[in-house]
Write a structure and sequence with these properties.
This protein has 525 residues and is mainly beta. It has 5 domains: 111 residues, Sandwich (Immunoglobulin-like), CATH 2.60.40.10; 95 residues, Immunoglobulin-like; 70 residues, Immunoglobulin-like (Sandwich); 121 residues, Immunoglobulin-like (Sandwich); 35 residues, no CATH class. 6% of the residues lie in helices and 44% in strands. It is built from 2 helices and 33 strands. The strands form 7 sheets. It has a 9-stranded mixed β-sheet, with no helix packed on it. Strands 10, 11, 12, 13, 14, 15 and 16 form a 7-stranded antiparallel β-sheet that branches. A hairpin with a 5-residue loop joins strand 3 and strand 4.
Length: 525
């Protein structure tokens, strides 16, 4: 009787998880794997490859035999047999087995003969190139062809050598090749491999190392490439001025929409554990083009509910999200704070964004977050957060932080903006990875009102604790389209409404004076 266990994985945000098991009889063996190639590569090595077997439940691996004697147990479908004698014929078979130790029938045998020992050393070719490498005292390795074809999230590498080699390819976003390696145990002349799980629109460096049949290991090629940028619409601007009101267990949310393009909509998502980080990261509360919603009985089972309001345009692009928390616990504010848990974010490695020296701490490592790493972009103008900011009251702006300026263990980044007309109204936004993968960003609607506000940037680590908080004032200044208070005098009226010329203003004043003079004369008469 076989016994198998099916693991059930829980999301990282849950405090507990369950594991279920299945117990039963599994007596069906896997299918018979068939040998594909048995190829000699030297006087003492043979490459053996075979097809994948299948099983009714869980295939566990393969057993490889040489001349009826087991020489390997592996989960791969290839093996290099070493330590063989020259000019000798060897026969191979393979079997598959499953998790209940059921064994397939044995594959048909395939045989081959190792190379003979040469009578005289081969002649060393005359002349070398930058891609020619010495592999022993008698032979030269020549790279006959090489191509690298990147896509959005992968890169295919093909190359040909004049002798059999096996390889190790390393890659990364720096010449330290820190992101990963891929290798093979087979000695071949023609090679094809794919680097996977890459980021779109990102530059990578790679190194190809090879080993010949004599055991000589060397770097054959190094270089760099860039993946193709992913197509993605520009993220729409977030909503602003979110207010929350709690009545018993009901929650009412109100907000101000940006100028919605045709086909755009607002989606409100709720989660009782953390701020929803995506449009599917919780329960759907509302979807439409309105500016308010009542979430009935939202606090009946849970004392907290965390809301994120997303703007989605007609092309499917999603804003970073504006957030707010509702609570029926007395004394807990209905807004974000350093004690409020946040949604987990994916860790992104360093990119090619230039980081100011001031972002490095005394040890030379990237600090948690330096104020000089927070930027405000409005149109073509970019300002440092630490300098204090003057923003056009009528133009949306973007808060962004380069990926390399934030240590990798950070969990979420929030930015909170006070309303210049009522600083008790605070709107909080999630900073999310932008389409280029080089910065965390949030697009924010301007208040359309002149005044002084405040901005706070907070970063959270995996323990859901605020590890850095930066605060700076914002001054929203007038533009030609800005909302203005009614002018205090006629001169200010003329400056505001440029359609009234000085001559027209003088004519109006002259007419008013004439009317008043005539009325006074009539009264005297």
């Amino acid at each position: 009787m076989g016994v198998w266990v099916t693991p059930v994985y829980a999301a990282a945000v849950h405090a507990s998880f369950g594991v279920s098991t299945r117990v039963g009889s599994d007596t069906i063996p896997p299918s018979t794997p068939l040998l594909r190639d048995v190829v000699p590569v030297s006087t003492s090595r043979i490459n053996v490859t075979w097809d994948v077997a299948t099983d009714n439940y869980l295939l566990s691996g393969y057993r490889l035999f040489r001349d009826g004697i087991q020489i390997a147990t592996t989960t791969q479908t290839s093996f290099t047999d070493t330590g063989l004698a020259a000019s000798t014929t060897y026969a191979y078979t393979v079997e598959a087995f499953d998790s209940s130790l059921n064994i397939s029938s044995t594959s048909p045998s395939m045989a081959t003969t190792t190379f003979a020992v040469p009578d005289t050393p081969p002649v060393v070719p005359v002349g070398t190139t930058t891609n020619t490498h010495k592999t022993s005292s008698t032979m030269l390795l020549v790279l006959q062809s090489f191509s690298l074809t990147p896509t959005e999230r992968a890169a295919e590498i093909k190359w040909q050598t004049n002798i059999n080699v096996r390889y190790v390819i390393s890659w990364g976003r720096t010449t330290s090749y820190e992101l990963g390696t891929v290798s093979t145990s087979l000695f071949k002349q023609a090679h094809v491999t794919t680097l996977e799980n890459l980021e779109p629109g990102t530059r990578y460096w790679y190194q190809v190392q090879v080993e010949d049949t004599a055991g000589v290991m060397q770097v054959m090629k190094t270089g760099e490439f860039a993946t193709i940028p992913a197509f993605q619409s520009v993220a729409p601007t977030n909503v602003r001025n979110i207010t929350v009101a709690v009545t018993d267990t009901d929650v009412r949310l109100d907000w101000v929409n940006p100028e919605l393009s045709p086909g755009s909509k607002v989606r409100v998502v709720r989660n009782y554990l953390f701020y929803p980080f995506s449009t599917t990261d919780g329960a759907l509360v509302y979807e439409g083009d309105g500016t308010s919603v009542i979430d009935t009985s939202a606090l009946q089972e849970h004392p907290f509910q965390y809301y994120t309001i997303f703007v989605i345009d007609a092309a499917g692009a999603v804003s970073s999200g504006a957030v707010v928390v509702a609570s029926r616990v007395p004394g807990i504010p209905s807004a974000s704070s350093s004690t409020i848990p946040t949604s987990p974010t994916s860790t992104v490695a360093s990119s090619s964004v230039t980081v100011p020296d001031s972002i490095l701490d005394e040890s030379g490592d990237v600090a948690v977050l330096h104020a000089d790493a927070v930027f405000i972009r409005q149109g073509l103008v970019v300002q440092h957060f630490s300098n204090g900011m003057k923003l056009d009251a009528d133009i949306p702006y973007t808060v962004y932080i380069p990926v390399v300026a934030v240590v990798t263990h950070l969990k979420s980044i929030l930015v909170s903006i006070k309303d210049p007309t009522d600083q008790r109204i605070v709107t909080t936004y999630l900073l999310k990875l932008n389409k280029n993968g080089d910065a965390y960003a949030a697009d924010i609607e301007s208040p359309h009102v002149i005044g002084v506000a405040g901005m706070t940037v907070e970063v959270f680590d995996f323990t859901q604790a605020s590890v850095r908080r930066l605060t700076a004032p914002i001054i929203f200044v007038a533009s030609q389209n800005a909302t203005r208070m009614f002018p205090d005098n006629v001169v200010e009226f003329a400056r505001t409404y440029g359609d009234i010329t000085a001559e027209a203003l003088g004519a109006i004043v002259l007419c008013l004076w004439f009317i008043l003079w005539r009325r006074r004369r009539e009264d005297n008469n």
